[in-house]
Design a protein that fits this description.
By secondary structure, the protein is α+β, with helices and mostly antiparallel strands. The protein is built from 14 helices and 49 strands. An 8-stranded parallel β-sheet has the order 19-18-17-9-4-3-21-20. The longest helix is centred in the middle third of the chain and has 15 residues.
Length: 751
C-alpha cells in the first residue's frame, strides 16, 4: 500500500490540492552510505541554534526549554537551520554523512520523575525517542521546509543524511516513579481529507483541515480505548533477561508497539517511507534488540522496495562485553538485513584505550574473531562513544588516548561514526549518557584546528581515495600488549597502521613480511600522532617492512594506492537482500564503460554505472542466495552473495507444545528460503516460552512471503548443536495474501 499526501495552501483549497506521492523527492538522495563514508552523529537539539524563533514553539511549555547548556534534561535550541549553518565545519572535517535525531514530533510536555524525598525532576523529549506524530516535524527543530532545505544543503555539499527512526515504541505510558500510574504513550496523525489522505500546506506541514483547532488526531492510546492493542502493554522488562522480555516487555516504560499486528506494521512502514520520500539516504533504527526480528525484516524490505531504491540501515542492538546475547547480536543482520552499530568494537576499544582492562592483543584477536562471526564486517558502524554511553574522556581523561582510539577507529573495518563534539574533546557534565549530551554551541568552539579534527579530516580523505580502508581485509602483522601493526588490503591497494597505545613506553617493532613494493612511505597523518616514514626493504630476496620504533602513543599510517585498472572488482553491496525489481547499489572499482551484472547466470538491468558505483535492478531469479558478479569485456569480477526474498514479507506465528530439557531450544525449518530451505543451520531464531507454568508452550513470529504455501517441521537443537527432527509427515501452511498480513497458526504438538 502507498498513501498519497495532500498539499493545500489554504483550508478552502481542498478541491485544488497539489498531490504528491512518496516518490516525489526520493530520487534526490545521494545514495546509500557505504564504508567509504565517515558519519558524524548529531543530536539535533545539542548542536547549533540556527533559529531562535523555534526554541519555544507555539503551544510548547516554556519549562521544557533551557538554552543555557546547563540543564541537559531540557531542550537547548539546536535545529535544522543550525546544521545548515555548520555545513562548512562538517565538510572541512571530511564528514560525508550525518546521522541526526529523529526529525518528527515527539511528546511535548514536562516529563516528571518523582523522587523519594518528595522533589521532582523534569525531563523533555529533546532526544527524539518519544514519538507522538510521525507525519510532522519536531517544532523545536523547525518545519518540514527547514528539514528539506537542510537535506538539500547537505546533499549539495556531498554529505548524506541518516535519520534516527524509532519503530519500537512511542513515549512513556506509565510512570515508574509514581507507582506506574498512567502517563502518555499516545500516537497522533494529521487531519485526513475526503480521500483519506493526510493534508499538508505548501511547505509540507500538517494543516487543521477540519477546523477543530488541532492538527493532531489521536490514533492509538495504550491507556485508553482507542487502539490500545497497538501496544503490548506487558510492563517494564525489569530483570527479565530472556529474549521474550527484551522483545515484548517495555523498555523504560516506553509504550512497546505490537509488531505482530497488521495495522501497526502497515502504519510504521508507511511512516518510514514518508521520510524516505524526503530524500534521506538511510535509517538508524533505534532499539533493535527489543524488536521482533520478523517485523524488522519486513520493515526494512518495505522501505527498500519503495521508490528511490535501497538505502542504508543500521540499528542499536545494545550489548556489553562479554554478553550472553552476543550470538543473537551477531545473527541479527543475517535475520533482518539491518546492520549493527558495532557495540563489540566499542566495548573492545573502550577496554583497550579507555580503561585499560584489555590490551592490544585483545584488539588483534577482535579483528580476527569478528571477521569470522560477522557476515559483512565492513558494513558495521563503528564508534568509540555515542549518546547511549559515557563520553570517552569520562573513561580516560587523556586527550592523546582519545586521538589514538579515534585514529584506530578511522582505519578499522566498518563505517566509522564520530559522535558530535569528539573532535573538540568534549567530556560532558558527568559520566552519564545524558551528561555527555552537551550543547556544543555553548560547551566548545567549532574549532577546525584541534588535533582530533585534523585526524578525522586526514583519515576521511584517505578512506575516500584508498579502497583498502573501505573494502579491505584486515591482517594483523604484529601485536604485543601495547602495540598493534595491521594491514588493510583490497587487491593491490593497502594501508599499514602501526599503533602504540602506551603513554609511558616506546617499542621497537621488528622487520615484518609484506607485499608492498620497495620504497619509503610517508605518514598520512603527517606526524599528528608522532608518526614517521616507513620503509620496505629487501632481505634475502623477500620484501619486509624495516624495523622501526614506535614512540609513546604514536600512530603511523602508510598508504599504497595504485590504480586497479579497468578490471571490475566488487567491494561491497549496500543492500545484501531484497526482492525482484528492487534497486540496489554495487560499490567497487572498474565499473565504467560497457558492463554486465549477473545474479547467478541471469543478466540484470543496469540503471547507471561509473568507475566506482553501479545501480542495478534485481532480476527475475529464484529466491534464496544468488551470486552477484560484474562482467566487463572478457573479465569477470569477484563474487558477492545476495539473498533474494521470495516475495513481499509478512508474518506467520508458529505455536508448538514440547517438553524440553535444559539446553534444548525449539526452531522451525521449511521448504522456502525464509525457513532455511530445510537447512537446520539456517534456523537461527529460537522459539519463546514465556509462561513459567506452561513452560512447554513455545511460539515464534517468522517472516515469510505473502500468498505462499510451504512445508515445514519443528526441530530441537541442544547446547552442543545436535538436531532432533520431529517425526511424521511434513506440515503445511499458507501465508496471508494481504500485504503486512499476519497468520497466527493454531497450537501444534511436537511429533
Amino acid at each position: 500500500m502507498r498513501k498519497i499526501f495532500s498539499k493545500a495552501t489554504t483550508l478552502g483549497a481542498l478541491l485544488a490540492l497539489f498531490v504528491t506521492s512518496y516518490s516525489s523527492t526520493a530520487e534526490n538522495s545521494l545514495g546509500p552510505v557505504t564504508s567509504k563514508d565517515v558519519v558524524y552523529q548529531i543530536l539535533t537539539d545539542r548542536f547549533y541554534d540556527g533559529d531562535s524563533n523555534n526554541n519555544t514553539p507555539v503551544g510548547s511549555p516554556s519549562q521544557i526549554f533551557d538554552g543555557t547548556g546547563i540543564d541537559l534534561k531540557l531542550y537547548q535550541g539546536g535545529d535544522f537551520k543550525g546544521i545548515i549553518a555548520q555545513i562548512p565545519y562538517l565538510k572541512n572535517m571530511g564528514i560525508t554523512a550525518v546521522w541526526i535525531s529523529a526529525p518528527y514530533a515527539n511528546r511535548d510536555e514536562p516529563i516528571i520523575d518523582y523522587q523519594p524525598d518528595g522533589s521532582q525532576i523534569t525531563w523533555s523529549s529533546y532526544h527524539g525517542y518519544h514519538v507522538s506524530n510521525y507525519y510532522k516535524t519536531n517544532p523545536h527543530f523547525g518545519g518540514m521546509k527547514d528539514f528539506t532545505d537542510m537535506v538539500a544543503a547537505l546533499h549539495a555539499n556531498g554529505i548524506k543524511v541518516i535519520v534516527d527512526f524509532v519503530s519500537n515504541h512511542t513515549s512513556r505510558w506509565q510512570n515508574p516513579t509514581n507507582n506506574y500510574s498512567a502517563e502518555n504513550g499516545r500516537l497522533y496523525e494529521p487531519d485526513r481529507d475526503i480521500y483519506n489522505n493526510f493534508s499538508f500546506n505548501i511547505n509540507g506541514d500538517p494543516i487543521d483541515l477540519n477546523n477543530d483547532g488541532s492538527i493532531d488526531n489521536l490514533i492509538a492510546d495504550p491507556n485508553g480505548s482507542l487502539n490500545p492493542d497497538w501496544f503490548h502493554r506487558k510492563g517494564d522488562r525489569g530483570s527479565d533477561s530472556s529474549r521474550f522480555g527484551y522483545r515484548y516487555r517495555d523498555l523504560g516504560s516506553l509504550a512497546d508497539f505490537t509488531h505482530e499486528l497488521p495495522a501497526v506494521v502497515n502504519y510504521l512502514e508507511e511512516a518510514a517511507i514518508f521520510w524516505k520520500s524526503k530524500g534521506i539516504d538511510g535509517y538508524r533504527h533505534d532499539a533493535t534488540l527489543h524488536m521482533n526480528p520478523a517485523f524488522a525484516k519486513g520493515f526494512r524490505d518495505a522501505i527498500d522496495s519503495a521508490s528511490g531504491g535501497s538505502v542504508t540501515h543500521f540499528g542499536e542492538f545494545f550489548i556489553g562485553k562479554p554478553d550472553p546475547k552476543y550470538a543473537e547480536y551477531v545473527s541479527f543482520p543475517d535475520r533482518t538485513n539491518i546492520n549493527n552499530l558495532d557495540f563489540e568494537f566499542f566495548r573492545t576499544i573502550t577496554n583497550v584505550f579507555g580503561n585499560g582492562s584489555e590490551d592490544m592483543n585483545t584488539l588483534a584477536n577482535f579483528y580476527q574473531y569478528t571477521a569470522n562471526d560477522y557476515q559483512y564486517e565492513n558494513q558495521t558502524v563503528t564508534f568509540i562513544d555515542n549518546h547511549d554511553v559515557p563520553r570517552f574522556l569520562r573513561v580516560n581523561g587523556d586527550q592523546r588516548s582519545l586521538d589514538v582510539a579515534l585514529a584506530t577507529s578511522l582505519t578499522s573495518r566498518g563505517i566509522p561514526n564520530i559522535y558530535y563534539g569528539t573532535e573538540q574533546y568534549v567530556n560532558g557534565h558527568d559520566a552519564s549518557e545524558n551528561g555527555g549530551r552537551v550543547f556544543l554551541q555553548i560547551d566548545k568552539p567549532f574549532d577546525q584546528t584541534t588535533r582530533a579534527y585534523k585526524i578525522i579530516k586526514k583519515l576521511s580523505d584517505l578512506r575516500q581515495v584508498n579502497d583498502a580502508l573501505a573494502y579491505g581485509l584486515t591482517s594483523v602483522l604484529y601485536s604485543t600488549a601495547d602495540v598493534l601493526v595491521m594491514s588493510r588490503k583490497f587487491y593491490d591497494k593497502e594501508v599499514i597502521v602501526a599503533i602504540n597505545r602506551s603513554p609511558f613506553n616506546s617499542y621497537i617493532v621488528p622487520n615484518l613480511a609484506t607485499s608492498l613494493p620497495l620504497g619509503n612511505y610517508n605518514d598520512i597523518l603527517t606526524a599528528e600522532l608522532g608518526g614517521d616514514t616507513g620503509s620496505v626493504i629487501s632481505v634475502g630476496g623477500t620484501k619486509q617492512i624495516a624495523s622501526f620504533q614506535l614512540n609513546q602513543q604514536e600512530v603511523s599510517v602508510w598508504s599504497y594506492n595504485p590504480s586497479l585498472g579497468a578490471s571490475p572488482r566488487i567491494g561491497d553491496l549496500t543492500s545484501v537482500a531484497g526482492r525482484q525489481g528492487n534497486e540496489i547499489t554495487i560499490s567497487g572499482t572498474g565499473f565504467d564503460g560497457a558492463i554486465q551484472v549477473y545474479f547467478g547466470s541471469t543478466l540484470a538491468t543496469v540503471l547507471t554505472n561509473s568507475y566506482n558505483k553501479i545501480k542495478v535492478i534485481v532480476p527475475n531469479v529464484s529466491a534464496g542466495e544468488q551470486i552477484v558478479t560484474v562482467k566487463k569485456d572478457t573479465i569477470t569480477s569477484n563474487d558477492f552473495t545476495f539473498n533474494v526474498l521470495s516475495d513481499d514479507q509478512n508474518q506467520m506465528i508458529f505455536h508448538v507444545q514440547k517438553a524440553t530439557e535444559l539446553g534444548q531450544k525449539v526452531y522451525v525449518v521449511g521448504s522456502i528460503p525464509e525457513l532455511g530451505s530445510w537447512d537446520p543451520a539456517k534456523a537461527i531464531d529460537a522459539f519463546h516460552n514465556p509462561d513459567s507454568v506452561q513452560w512447554y508452550d513455545w511460539f515464534l513470529p517468522v517472516s515469510v512471503p505473502k500468498s505462499t504455501t510451504f512445508q515445514y517441521k519443528f526441530i530441537i537443537k541442544d547446547s552442543a548443536g545436535s538436531v532432533t527432527w520431529e517425526g511424521g509427515s511434513n506440515r503445511s501452511a499458507t501465508s496471508s495474501s494481504v500485504i503486512n498480513g499476519v497468520t497466527d497458526l493454531p497450537q501444534a504438538f511436537f511429533q
